[in-house]
Design goal:
Layout (H helix, E strand, L loop, with lengths): L1 E6 L1 H8 L5 E6 L14 E6 L4 E13 L4 H15 L3 H6 L5 E12 L14 E4 L6 E5 L2 H6 L17 E5 L5 E5 L11 H8 L6 E8 L2 E7 L2
Parallel strand pairs: 1-3, 8-11
Antiparallel strand pairs: 1-6, 2-5, 3-4, 4-5, 7-10, 8-9, 10-11
């Protein structure tokens, strides 16, 4: 599964700057993400009333139930440095009985996110992974040696040779190519992409879906 979390822009800035390393959700009743998020799942952070701004992976997840005032005070004392909540936040949450604390890993900026049906006053969405605009492909020693790449998307899982694909490369170059065998991309300029990024086996080639059949591409350290 993947997740969309709605946050005030200031909190998302804190995530990207590394000052906020735990996302907390405190509620009176059972609702997502309580019991719905697992380590390793991807989170997309969207500014309330604004655009997508960041993404991260869930690390450790802690669940707390049947909290009383004393329990909330303990959570604040122990975790608020990582949560980054101000007095107003904790005052608003003083009647909460459940808490979900999600450690954030590999936070990075992003300006696209999954498409979903917006619900009034809903601040957390649990979505099928197929809706993620991110597709990661692990770079292998063979890919580095033979200078190729594959497009790991659901739409090409069965392979459609000849399907047109447009790539926006890290340096700004735009390449029109197509699928060859299975998911392999016919364009053969991957050597320069790998060399410019200092790519190594185990790093990830990330395809960000901008619109159908068009992707921004960059190398992410494995």
């Amino acid at each position: 599964m993947i997740h969309v979390a709605i946050l005030k822009p200031g909190y998302i800035d804190a995530i990207l700057e590394g000052r906020k390393t735990i996302e907390s959700r405190l509620t009176k009743a059972m609702q997502p993400p309580h019991g719905r998020v697992e380590p390793g799942e991807r989170l997309f952070f969207k500014a309330s009333g604004g655009p997508f701004m960041a993404t991260a992976l869930a690390g450790g997840v802690q669940l707390f139930e049947d909290l009383q005032a004393g329990g909330l005070k303990c959570l604040r004392k122990r975790y608020n440095k990582q949560i980054g909540g101000d007095d107003t936040y904790w005052e608003l949450k003083k009647d909460s009985r459940l808490a979900t604390l999600i450690e954030l890993k590999q936070a990075e900026p992003i300006d696209v996110g999954p498409k979903y049906k917006v619900a009034y006053m809903k601040a957390w969405y649990v979505l099928d992974e197929a809706l993620s605009p991110l597709r990661d492909w692990t770079i292998t020693p063979g890919a580095l040696r033979n200078r190729y790449a594959c497009l790991p998307t659901a739409e090409t899982s069965k392979g459609k040779p000849g399907q047109a694909i447009t790539l926006e490369l890290p340096g700004g170059e735009v390449v029109d190519t197509e699928l060859a065998r299975g998911r392999m991309l016919r364009w053969r300029g991957w050597g320069s992409v790998y060399e410019s990024a200092g790519a190594r086996a185990g790093d990830v080639l990330r395809f960000v879906a901008l619109c159908p059949k068009r992707y921004a591409v960059r190398v992410v350290r494995g």
